[in-house]
Design a protein that fits this description.
The complex is a heterodimer of chains A (about 150) and B (about 110). Chain A contains 4 helices and 8 strands, in the order ββααββββββαα. With about 150 residues, chain A is of the alpha+beta class. Chain A has an 8-stranded antiparallel beta sheet with strand order 1-2-8-7-6-5-4-3. In chain A, a hairpin with a 7-residue loop joins strand 6 and strand 7. In chain A, helix 1 crosses helix 2. Chain B starts with a helix and ends with a helix. The model of chain B has no long low-confidence stretch (mean pLDDT about 85). Chain B contains 6 helices and 3 strands, in the order ααβααββαα. With about 110 residues, chain B is α+β, with helices and mostly antiparallel strands. Chain B folds into 2 domains: about 70 residues, Winged helix-like DNA-binding domain superfamily/Winged helix DNA-binding domain (Arc Repressor Mutant, subunit A, Orthogonal Bundle); about 35 residues. The longest helix of chain B is centred in the last third of the chain and has 25 residues. Chains A and B meet through strand 1, strand 2, helix 1, helix 2 and helix 3 of A and helix 1 and helix 6 of B.
């Protein structure tokens, strides 16, 4: 089976690119990033703030199964509906520096779209560390699974 | 964990990456590899030593010559290393797709 989500992380570079094709019109794909209620559903996070515009910002909060809270936040630099979001992303309370994210949305037809996520880290070392120890994601995933169990 | 970090450090260097690309197509001696670079011979030797220590390269004696081979198994391990991260995004995007398909059918 062909992998839908592709990850390009060239050795020694401080960036990575994630691409994904969806069986969704680009308007719906974009909406998943725009509406707080939808972000909450697929990210498995609580949306404290989501102000989608240039100079806007966001704040997400997740709780791990132990009840510890984790905050994720950033500033929105570009917000072009249906096309592009440029934003920063920070995991608060961790030693990892803020990262810069370029999200590009592309239509591939009536019911197909593509997302290209270009992430720039402060250094190649930080990128590799995050690739190797995606602990915060691990927490999110555990949380997601717990939620699935609770709701199913 | 330390060994893995070493492998990443090994491939972070552009000359070492170029060496890996070079021996990917055919096994070469240290001399043949050094001849492809402007870098001083001892520097190339040092790169070969690091790559061998990380098991990205293996040495094979052939007569008086030592040939360097690429270790595809080790290269595969590097690729597998980022696999959990890719999978994490795959699961997340799968969920996005499910949520939005649901959203769409509820709207209609």
């Amino acid at each position: 089976m062909e992998r839908k989500t592709k990850l390009h992380a060239e050795p020694g570079r401080q960036e990575l690119v994630i691409t994904r094709e969806f069986d969704l019109p680009v308007s719906l794909l974009f909406k998943a990033y725009e509406e707080a209620g939808l972000v909450e559903q697929w990210m498995g996070t609580r949306v404290v703030k989501l102000d989608c515009r240039k100079h806007g910002s966001y704040l997400f909060e997740t709780a791990d199964p132990k009840g510890n809270k984790h905050l994720f936040s950033g500033t929105i630099h570009e917000f072009v509906p249906g096309q592009k979001i440029t934003r920063t992303f920070e995991m608060e309370g961790t030693p990892f520096d803020v990262q810069l994210e370029f999200l590009e949305f592309e239509s591939l037809g009536d019911d197909a779209s593509k997302l290209t996520m270009h992430v720039v880290y402060r250094s190649a070392a930080i990128r590799d560390q995050l690739l190797q120890m995606p602990f915060e994601w691990g927490i999110n995933m555990a949380h997601d699974r717990l939620q699935q169990i609770m709701t199913n | 964990m330390n060994l893995r970090r070493d492998v990443f450090q090994a491939i972070a260097d552009p000359t070492r990456r170029a060496i890996l690309m070079l021996v990917a197509s055919q096994a070469l001696t240290a001399g043949a590899i050094a001849a492809r670079f402007d870098t001083a011979r001892p520097t190339v030797s040092r790169h070969l030593q690091i790559l061998t220590e990380c098991e990205l390269l293996t040495q094979q004696q052939s007569g008086r010559e030592i040939y360097y081979h690429l270790n595809p198994q080790k290269m595969k391990e590097i690729a597998e290393f980022i696999e959990p991260f890719r999978q994490m995004w795959e699961e997340r995007f799968d969920k996005l797709e499910r949520v939005m398909k649901n959203y769409k059918s509820n709207k209609q």
